[in-house]
Design a protein that fits this description.
199 residues, 2 helices
């Protein structure tokens, strides 16, 4: 009798474990073309602040979504930014930025997550701290990037965040203009807004 009870309990555990895994199944997403997508790099100079931006980038992610349409885990996330699509509206600034970022050899800025931790949920926005590898101008560094994600009614996921960068850490020399009269600062900020859709 005791063996039958134990077997029954074990069977129930297996069944509920399977249901829980189904409820929290992994969902795969990718970045599609959307007006909600934007990635930009901004900084300062001896004359004025500057910003370069683009909507032409790609990426993918895998989330665990819980029973009440909640993000329970971020398994993977990565993005790929073609540097030559970044535009400031000033051709000379763009040209010098491309040169500083060594686009003749390295065409892309890349990020690939190594681990992630769900930190908090505020007003249905999920704060996720990710650790990963950021590659700029061929140099890869370990970084921690905070994401803030929201599940939309259609099941897509909007994520935004930013990350401060010192160009010298990636062996990038800050661009100079006008024979050295105008010089950009070493500190820049990478900002992004992604719209992930299921595939």
């Amino acid at each position: 009798m005791k063996n039958k009870i134990k077997f029954g309990l074990l069977l129930l555990i297996v069944i509920f474990s399977g249901i829980n895994q189904m409820i929290q199944a992994q969902s795969h997403f990718k970045i599609e073309k959307s007006k909600d997508n934007e990635m930009k790099i901004s900084g300062t100079s001896t004359f004025h602040d500057w910003t370069m931006k683009t909507a032409a980038f790609s990426g993918k992610a895998t989330f665990d979504i819980g029973v009440e349409n909640q993000i329970t885990k971020l398994n993977t996330i990565e993005f790929n930014l073609p540097v030559l699509t970044l535009k400031s509206g000033q051709k000379k600034l763009d040209k010098n930025a491309y040169k500083a970022l060594k686009t003749d050899q390295f065409k892309e800025i890349l990020y690939k997550q190594v681990s992630a931790e769900l930190m908090s949920v505020t007003n249905s926005k999920f704060h996720i701290k990710t650790a990963g590898k950021l590659t700029i101008a061929g140099v890869t560094k370990d970084v921690v990037i905070d994401l803030y994600c929201f599940i939309n009614q259609d099941g897509s996921i909007s994520c935004d965040g930013n990350y401060p960068i010192n160009m010298s850490e990636f062996k990038v020399t800050a661009p100079v203009f006008m024979g050295g009269i105008m010089k950009t600062g070493d500190s820049i900020k990478l900002e992004f807004s992604f719209l992930f859709e299921k595939y």
